[in-house]
Amino acid sequence: MFKYHCLNPIAQVGLDQLDENYVNTDNAEEADAILVRSAKMHEMEFSGNLKVIARAGAGVNNIPLDRCAEEGIVVFNTPGANANGVKELVIAGMLLAARDIIGGINWVQEYEEDGDIAKITEKKKKAFAGTEIKGKKLGVIGLGAIGVLVANAAVHLGMEVYGYDPFVSVDSAWMLSRSIYHAKTVDEIYKECDYITVHVPATKETTGMIDKNAVSLMKKGVVILNFARDVLVNQEDIVDALVSEKVRCYVSDFPTKEIVGVKGAIVIPHLGASTEESEDNCAEMAVAEVRDFLENGNITHSVNFPDCDMGEKGQGTRVTILHKNVPNMLGQFTGLMAERGINISIMTNKSRKEYAYTMMDVDADVPAEVEAQLAGVDGVLKVRVL
């Protein structure tokens, strides 16, 4: 029996995948798994019973990944599950920036009781005229699940699309339209494009990447869209760029005290993934990841440990070991098994930077003392016998 705890409301369609072997608990201290969306977890203390955290969404900056890894807690996210919802809002953001739709709507509401509104409209509508996005250059920084969808959609809208991602995956590369120009540097995006949208994770390297230096390379009147993370754009620098009109419009899905109310800023209340479909998709993927890990030991879409999959666990015993990626770990594991006469039928080991994961299917029961010996190996973080 596994216990799970939800730090945020999780779509019921996902929770419905949990069968009678799962029980919801209000006490996070006794949970095997925690499901979370945006709740901040950096100040939380984790019990030794916690095995997995699943983020129903892509960003994981609300979770202390390094501490989780050191405590043998696997953290999952749900890449791509909300990609279409974000893509659609990015396209909407470009259209809102291209044509003063918001200003026009607000103007109409001011005249809502004027009987001559239709006549006045014909005289005043030129004040809200804009441009079309067809034929404009769009730069997409980051070609992950969302960036690829945005780039391909923009091609179909008639835009000339530049893409930049030095770490683009093979899967993403296969999905990209052949019409997209692959920029060699991010500076090329800054210099060439009329619209720039950023879709990269928040890391030490990307925090503040859109700053005054980046803006200085851009065209006058550029439009910048940020539906990834607020910290990717230096807030003081983007305000200065809007005031000077170097940046014509900044569309952000992240309200901050610096940007709200600034002329030229279109600020949306973090609605990128807030669709019924996205929330359902994220919940279903997160729950599937939790179940596969707890029941089979498989890791898919982890952000702090390597992915590793040995399929569905059969009738025998499966041993999983989260450990440091250091020499002679496998030799120690297999040696302990050999000493007790336990045959290993299948073994898989994967590593990711300083952490690694070993899975073993064995032909006999694993006594508690052997599990304890494995856990006692220097560098082992957590052992599970399934």
Order of helices and strands: EHEEEHEHHHEHEHEHEHEHEEHEHEEHE
For the largest beta-sheet, the strand count, sense and barrel status come to: 7 strands, parallel
Total DSSP E strands:
16
- The unreliable regions are none
Q: What is the CATH architecture annotation of the largest domain?
A: 3-Layer(aba) Sandwich
**Largest sheet strand order:** 8-7-6-9-10-11-12
Q: Class of the largest domain, according to the CATH hierarchy?
A: Alpha Beta
Helix content: 25-40%
CATH superfamily of the largest domain: NAD(P)-binding Rossmann-like Domain
General shape = elongated
| Cα Rg | 25 Å
**What's the structural domain tally?**
3
Distance from first to last alpha carbon: 12 Å
Tags for this model:
386 residues, alpha/beta, Rossmann fold, Alpha-Beta Plaits, 3 domains, 7-stranded parallel sheet, 13 helices, 32% helix
In short:
The protein is α/β, with parallel strands linked by helices and 386 residues long. It is built from 13 helices and 16 strands.
Walk me through the structure.
32% of the residues lie in helices and 21% in strands. By secondary structure, the chain is of the alpha/beta class. The protein folds into 3 domains: 1-82 and 273-304, 3-Layer(aba) Sandwich (Rossmann fold), CATH 3.40.50; 85-267, Rossmann fold (3-Layer(aba) Sandwich); 308-386, Alpha-Beta Plaits. The strands form 3 sheets. It has a 7-stranded parallel β-sheet, sandwiched between helices. Strand 1 (2-6), helix 1 and strand 2 (22-24) form a beta-alpha-beta unit. It starts with a strand and ends with a strand.
